[in-house]
Amino acid sequence: xxxxxxxxxxxxxxxxxxxxxxxxxxxxxxxxxxxxxxxxxxxxxxxxxxxxxxxxxxxxxxxxxxxxxxxxxxxxxxxxxxxxxxxxxxxxxxxxxxxxxxxxxxxxxxxxxxxxxxxxxxxxxxxxxxxxxxxxxxxxxxxxxxxxxxxxxxxxxxxxxxxxxxxxxxxxxxxxxxxxxxxxxxxxxxxxxxxxxxxxxxxxxxxxxxxxxxxxxxxxxxxxxxxxxxxxxxxxxxxxxxxxxxxxxxxxxxx
Length: 255
Ligand SMILES: Nc1ncnc2c1ncn2[C@@H]1O[C@H](COP(=O)(O)OP(=O)(O)OP(=O)(O)O)[C@@H](O)[C@H]1O
Fold this sequence. Notes:
By secondary structure, this protein is of the alpha/beta class. The strands form 3 sheets. It has a 6-stranded mixed beta sheet with strand order 6-7-8-3-9-10, with helices on both faces. Strands 2-1-4-5 form a 4-stranded antiparallel beta sheet. A two-stranded antiparallel sheet has the order 11-12. The protein starts with a strand and ends in an 8-residue tail after the last strand. The protein is built from 9 helices and 12 strands. The longest helix has 16 residues. The site of adenosine-5'-triphosphate (ATP) has 11 residues, from strand 2 and helix 1. Adenosine-5'-triphosphate binds next to strand 2 and helix 1. One of its GO terms (molecular function) is ATP binding. Keywords: ATP-binding, Nucleotide-binding, Transport.
């Protein structure tokens, strides 16, 4: 179980995340939705310790992230939204780094590594540098690295962006398979069909505040004959380029 309790992140005066309180059950596929700048990446980066919240607490299986960071990090693997990291390394060197960082037995993960290489058609590219890869190939390299430790919690920030249709399909199947093993998958997306297909539960963020948290099934049941896309757009509302609400789908002015 992951618990956010009144987690706030401020950048100067800007409140990127405002007292986020929610629970994510083990074994769930949990999605974060929200317009650009809503606070999705801030939430995920807080969970994986890339940024430190201004206030509030995050606990993972009862471990406090602020004081037991190392123990929490061992449970988590993260796929960032921008995969432009370790560009000078070859894919193989990157995976070796992950194996060392998580203290994995290279022989024990060899079969898993090969399976992932074959699935993502990366075997022929393993000795090439990340700098020479396309966005999608870098994304696949990082996804393979994240899965090598078979993490209890797999966190992915907009993971489908830049993947070709086959890789996107395979990734979605992997996310389902990971959760089916009792592990937790947390991701952000702008692709509402994907959220509808995959998520057990979701949170919708709007300008740093959570405006919905619950199951996709409950949300759809409360709005019969509507898709997640139309429900989401009605909840979040249309916004001007400056971020002000201008109208909902019915054209009603809100601000
Ligand atoms: N390093 C930073 N310095 C200042 N402001 C930041 C920083 N990182 C994020 N922000 C601000 O925090 C808010 C939330 O950003 P965040 O990246 O979490 O949004 P997001 O929901 O992931 O958006 P997107 O869908 O565009 O990726 C935005 O207003 C953003 O401008």
